[in-house]
Design a protein that fits this description.
With 331 residues, this protein is mainly β. 10% of the residues lie in helices and 43% in strands. The protein has three helices and 23 strands.
């Protein structure tokens, strides 16, 4: 009898685990048709309704994404006022930031969502009739460690070449600490540059909230000016420690021979919107995308428990140990 009861309980637990692992459409953030990916303690909510974005990447219910409840159910329609570019969540865009083609269709428009498997979903944009571009975004959640692959594929279905680059624009919960390895041979004297105004670039800034230690750039508080750009080293990662005791870590490929098309030529950027939100921005190399060609760029995310440090002084050895322990799921 006990053996049978044990078997019934085991089957029930396995069935529950399988159910929790299913990708499925679900209501969230005022929308009827978001996509939920879930595995163990990690949950992901993908929104195809407005901008093809990540509205939740959470560990035990603690969401690392910046979200704004006033934007719930927002869609890009003539009857609804257009939002600013600060529309919330884990965003993706096409760069270079100052010379890019118009990307409103992809950044604000609706997408077609296709659930590909128990841990994956793909979003398909419409084709932009002016540029001929179409974008696909693939999201795959690792069942073993909760890592999230975010792959943006830009396709040229038009008749003319188009300059494109990946521009990750993840809006994370505000007032955290940002850390990343910077290239020792960086052409930036301070290992980063800072925009004091939209058209003014400080090439050797000084800021009490920013320092370099052991080839790591640390942004420990809100900087004097919000937008920074830097050359992340070839190890290709950035970490963000949030005030709700999370470490959000992004891995991405740095092409040491690539041409980076932003004004400073940097391969990453960070933008602090006061204490409200912090935008974490891996940047891909720019290419001239010919008709019929496609461009692909991967970001791989992890979310782990990590106590927010007293005095905003992070334990770098602990963080580096965590980063080195993470394994990227190849797709």
């Amino acid at each position: 009898m006990k053996g049978r009861l044990y078997y019934i309980i085991l089957i029930g637990l396995l069935s529950l685990q399988h159910a929790l692992a299913q990708s499925r459409f679900a209501p969230a953030f005022g929308y009827d048709s978001c996509v939920l990916l879930q595995s163990g303690r990690i949950s992901v909510i993908i929104d195809p309704n407005a901008g093809g974005r990540v509205l939740e990447y959470a560990l035990d219910g603690r969401n690392i994404m910046y979200v704004d409840s006033s934007q719930n159910a927002w869609v890009s329609a003539a009857a609804i006022p257009r939002l600013s570019s600060h529309i919330a969540g884990g965003r993706f865009d096409i760069g270079p930031s100052r010379t890019k083609v118009n990307t409103d269709l992809f950044f604000f428009g609706s997408w077609h969502a296709v659930v590909e498997g128990p841990y994956s979903v793909s979003l398909y944009s419409n084709i932009d009739v002016k540029t001929g571009l179409q974008v696909i975004r693939h999201f795959v959640l690792s069942p073993s460690d909760g890592g999230l692959l975010c792959r943006q594929v830009i396709m040229n279905k038009g008749n003319e070449s188009v300059p494109v680059a990946h521009w990750g624009r993840t809006m994370a919960a505000g007032h955290g600490i940002c850390i990343m390895p910077v290239a020792n041979n960086s052409r930036f004297p301070a290992k980063y540059v800072m925009y004091s105004h939209r058209d003014t670039l400080l090439v050797a800034p000084k800021d009490d909230a920013i320092r370099v230690k052991d080839s790591l750039l640390l942004i420990t508080d809100v900087p004097r000016y919000p937008k920074l750009e830097m050359d992340v080293s070839s190890s290709g990662w950035m970490a963000y420690i949030s005030t709700n005791d999370l470490a959000f870590i992004k891995f991405f490929t740095v092409d040491t021979n690539g041409y980076y098309g932003d004004i400073s030529g940097a391969n990453a950027s960070v933008w602090y919107n006061g204490t409200t939100m912090t935008e974490l921005e891996p940047i891909g190399p720019m290419v001239m995308l010919q008709p019929g060609e496609q461009y692909s760029f991967d970001e791989y995310w992890f979310l782990k428990s990590f106590p927010f440090p007293a005095g905003r002084k992070p334990d770098l050895n602990k963080l580096l140990s965590l980063v080195s322990s993470l394994k990227i799921l190849k797709q």
